[in-house]
Design brief:
18 strands, alpha/beta, binds zinc ion, metal-binding, zinc ion binding, binds nicotinamide-adenine-dinucleotide, six-stranded parallel sheet, Quinone Oxidoreductase, Chain A, domain 1, NAD(P)-bd_dom_sf, Rossmann fold, seven-stranded mixed sheet
Length: 342
Amino acid sequence: MKALVKAKREPGLWLQDVPVPVPGKSEVVIKILRTAICGTDVHIYNWDSWAQKTIPVPMHVGHEFVGRVAVIGENVTDYKVGDLVSGEGHLVCGHCRNCLAGRRHLCPNTSGVGVNRAGAFAEYLAIPQVNVWYCDPNIPLDILTCFDPLGNAVHTALSFDLLGEDVLITGAGPIGCMAAAVARHAGARHVVVTDINPYRLDLARIAGATRVVNVANENLPQVQQELGMKEGFDVAMEMSGSPAALNALLENMCHGGKIAMLGIVPDNTAIDWSKVIFNGLTIKGIYGREMFETWYKMTTMIQSGLDISRLITHRFHYTDYEEAFSVMRTGHSGKVVLNWEE
Ligand code: NAD
Ligand code: ZN
């Protein structure tokens, strides 16, 4: 089968022939229909220091996918050939305290599809049946293939009560824009999204932000004043990975405000801890998606009108992956989807 392989320890991905995976006893093999490109895949393409110490070579990568079950292992009873499925890319151990308690997203022994083991940028993918998510066939394939990053947004956004609250999102990447859509859907009042990239701020507005802020030429205290907010944001989601954004966020919270941190800030990023302590802030780190409460919630929100379709800005056939990755690198994109059908 064809796959996008990290074949050499240097920047790039290579379209190569690799063996079709054989399912383990409790695995399913999925015929991939669509994949989406994640920022992680761009790190792997670029071969940055994180990728160099994390990604085995050679290996095909990718973890955002939707497809149809093609082969099932002998112990698989819950899925049948032809089922439309996506899946959780985080594989967990199943026997640690958190796994046993049903908090699988907190497993300390997590490994990742397309990061630690063969990925989804391929015609076929094998994953354990416990990682499979059965998809509503009424939801378009291009949306279903974004369930992994949408799940990041949903997990973050639903960490705190948003109904009637004023919400700040720093970073209007695909996930920040999805979080803006979720916050509106969940009943927030003001949904303010910051970035330094005007293209991305336009996407955030389209997604549902009530006010977008280019922090290169505007600041949040002014925006609060304009909106008649007197005490700061009730809930914030950090989705940029920028230390400057994190510090601006901390400056603009109400006392007792709640912060969910998805963005991956550089090691040893400094913050003003007095803001956290004297203002009684709560900070929650977010990793991945809750298995499978997040998947349930994103499905039902899409079924009840959550619309992220306009955040998918580019579509390519998988053979045009070089163009797809170069679009991702420009920053002038939302989600970029690859089609793996003939
Ligand atoms: P992205 O890189 O596409 O978007 C980040 C955005 O932040 C960009 O649009 C950038 O212009 C903006 N930004 C940069 N500096 C800023 C500043 N000072 N103020 C405001 N915005 C600023 O990323 P994404 O794919 O949308 O993901 C969002 C973040 O979440 C990334 O940091 C990513 O690494 C992280 N992530 C974490 C998890 C997890 O499980 N914790 C999962 C996926 C992604
Ligand atoms: Zn575990």
